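User: I'm curious what two different proteins look like when written out as structure tokens. Can you demonstrate?

Assistant: Sure. I'll show them one after the other, since each token string lines up with its own sequence. Here's the first protein:
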Amino acid sequence: MSPTLKVGIALVVALLIGFVVGFGLGAAGKREFERGQRREKNRAEEAEAALKQQQGQCSQQAKSCKTGKQLISAKEQLLRAALELYANNYGLTSQHLAQARQKLRAASKGLNKRHAAQTLELYERVGQAQTLAMRLDPMARVQIEHILADLQQLPGAR
């Protein structure tokens, strides 16, 4: 065999070996890259799920705070109404009771069914107290005190 042929065969064999080794190393790197890509994709999906959960919790907390604020505002209006009753100012008493009714109606939308039903019952009782106040009936004071006591039992009204 001639030396040129030996060099040619060695060159072809070296190229084949280089090609096989290069292909093997390239495929290994690709697998590692794809594994890392899948791992990061899973982490991103988990982070998105956690973010959605946190957004839901924040939304629920904001709704709860808004409902609590409405209940406390209703309580404030009831206390103002009671104060106006002590001053025998039945007109302002009626206005404060009307505002308390509005706040109770709004708060009932943010509560669970049981508490919403209690809130709507208080709403009706405030309407009855308002009717008593418009009749200049001193029993309105007792009615308002009972409503305030029942309002204290609702979550967020304390």
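Here's a second, unrelated protein for contrast:
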Amino acid sequence: MADYDVIILGGGPGGYLAAERLGHRKLKVLLVEQESLGGTCLNVGCIPTKSLLNSAKLYAHAQHSEQFGVTATGVAYDWTQVQAWKADVVGKLVAGVGASEKRAGVEVAHAHGSLVAPGVVEVAGERKTADHVIIATGSVPVLPPIPGAADNPLVVDSTGLLAVESVPQRLVVIGGGVIGVEFASLFAAFGAQVEVIEMLPEILPFMDDDLAARTRKALTGVTFRLGCRVTGIANSEDGSATVVYTDAKGAEQRAEADLVLMAVGRRPLVQGWGAEEAGLEVGPRGVVVDDTMRTNLPNVWAVGDVTGRSLLAHAAYRMGEIAAAHIIDPVAARRNGQRLRTDTIPWAVYSMPEAAGVGLTEAQAKERGHDVITATVPLAVSGRFVAENGVRGPGAVKLIADRGTRAVLGVHMLGSYAPETIWGAATALETELTIDDLRQVVFPHPTVSEGIREAAWAITD
């Protein structure tokens, strides 16, 4: 008889949520996490970043509130207190995850774990057995081989930037994805001079090009260098760094910085825990899984970033739920359609302004052979948006659909509350609603979500 029903390697969103679901169904579960529960997202990712961004937004709003009839004087920020707030938020939520695991009857081992074989895991040098094993080891930042970047104290990843003792006067961000854009917006709001160097022709490559361009133009205090490739980083005697890059025309350019953020992405963590030794299939994207999160090994599952299917915390939650469902009752899981559908996973950017989206971009839809119809409406159609941002506030919704079937293929949003609203569009895609179905949905008024309805009605029949 096995020691456990399920052993889970990794206590991030996918791992800890799977553990809770399984524990609540009275399965004997061991959750192995070498560091703090919550993984990258809770400890050095989503949550601490949003805590700092909240402080930055309060600071920015206080500085620019006159048009709303509110005048604030002596507005200042205390970086030490900003960091203290972040630490308090993270600490409370990590403790909350631990309490949830305890309530679910999950045993937690704070140790290094390795997969030895299907059903066999080594934890702190001791072998444990289980009927099922879930791999949830997450991801790590990518450090490209840029000359002068490795072991450079002036070059940090997102974890390092979260812990800085003061706001740098000049920040150069290498990478215009979610991490780069959020940090650029955050530190620009606190007064830093920020440059973002992006290799692609536009930021946020998963966002529809039209709205990505609008987002970039709305990010105040940030200078973007698009179509540029960083070739080297050199430190000066005065304690600053020079980032050397070639621009879109091939000319060499330089950007001076007090700190450089390397934000070119993350990669699945597939080394150091026995994947190769156990015979687990690992592809270019990560651990290979099917849509039910099964690997090539019997009763070994993988969820979250390590699969490379979607490096988002909420995607990891969903993957953890799918794996747990198939372990608990595979027949019911198949009957209920418990499988991963990557095209319906929403994304969000918590910059100033915010952005969010789900589904295909217009370009992707055309590449897949759809006869595409689109509509883009300004969020000025929303009474609440105008009341809080004015008619000229940056905000828009773009809806992408198939002309023949009228199926909704994608929704992309720029503007306040977009991340809180996008779940409705995700539901539309998940349930395969058509434009006509969406038009019949009653949206509360006045809300920013009404922009989605207006986009559906703006589609030319």
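A detail about the second structure: The longest helix spans residues 79-103.
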